[in-house]
């Protein structure tokens, strides 16, 4: 019996070693993004192994090292230094949005895959350079959105595809919170979130990208015909250099969308409403969805769905990243993570920013 358990322990140890060896070696570029805790606090799994971090701000790195327990020995000053030393298979970008292009420029020629936090870039020009590099060097470039993890959004799309609410006519997507300063983000995060160059704008980019991304997914990659946007600055004392409230209207042949990104919501939210010819779907939050079907003029039936987390690997962005890299997962066209979706998302954001600055409607149909 002792021999049996000794053999079993040896087998488990060998399997664990093999799993670690086959794990995607992940580098992290930047620690200033407030979402970086998602990877630093991630439970130990066999699909991803964090091998290096690029962060020149050693005071910030030490603070996070104390909080999350990673060794300062794995922190480097530059991407080139980190890549040369630990040879990552992939890099996750957690710096400012403007740095996304620099990360891809460093990684793509070496065949290193990249995942960035939303949005893909600060402007369409940088996004096109990222796309060209990804195609030239045949790497994956994924964009991570929190709403990609919402089972309610998947359920809403399934109901729409089944024709449950009839033909789609209008979508309303609301995203945001009280504002970065009011919710107490770190100084390092606030510094670039409120910078029009490093973030590409304020709420219009920080939260407008969610709606543009989801709408592109729902429309299966169809570009809007026109984009009209207005922005306001309702907290000049907190956001002196960028907008903090926006409304973006997208028109399609038979549908329209209203995106409402804001740093002025009294309660944080990421919700979506789909209106069809027969009823409506309310994706209230990550776990609750309501379905209303019309009965006459104003009457309706209502069904509430209480859902759990998405199934693996979709419950975790790093698991998705690893599965894509290992050819265990092929994302369907215009998936929310996919580059082709996020190129259209950037086209929408760029047009929205231009519209808000010029007071005109931007027509894409003729482009």
Architecture overview:
The longest helix is centred in the first third of the chain and has 21 residues, at 2-22. The protein contains 13 helices and 15 strands. The chain folds into 2 domains: 2-146, Rossmann fold, CATH 3.40.50; 147-311 and 332-363, Dihydrodipicolinate Reductase, domain 2. With 367 residues, it is α/β, with parallel strands linked by helices. The model is unreliable at 1-20 (pLDDT under 50). A 9-stranded mixed β-sheet has the order 14-13-12-11-7-10-9-8-15. Helix 6 runs antiparallel to helix 13 and helix 11 crosses helix 13 (339-358).
**Secondary structure category:** alpha/beta
Number of domains: 2
**Sheet with the most strands?**
9 strands, mixed
CATH level-four homologous superfamily name of the largest domain: Dihydrodipicolinate Reductase, domain 2
Radius of gyration: 22 Å
Q: Choose one word for the global shape.
A: globular
Query: How much of the residues is beta strand, in percent?
Result: 15-25%
CATH topology of the largest domain: Dihydrodipicolinate Reductase, domain 2
Which spans of ≥5 residues are poorly predicted at pLDDT below 50?
1-20
Overall pLDDT: 94
What level of helicity do the residues show?
25-40%
CA distance, first residue to last residue: 74 Å
The CATH architecture of the largest domain comes to 2-Layer Sandwich
By DSSP (H or I, 4+ residues per run), the number of helices equals 13
Identify the CATH class of the largest domain. Alpha Beta
Sequence of secondary-structure elements: HEHEHEHEHEHEHEHHHHEEEEEEEHHE
Strand order of the largest sheet: 14-13-12-11-7-10-9-8-15
Using DSSP, what is the number of strands?
15
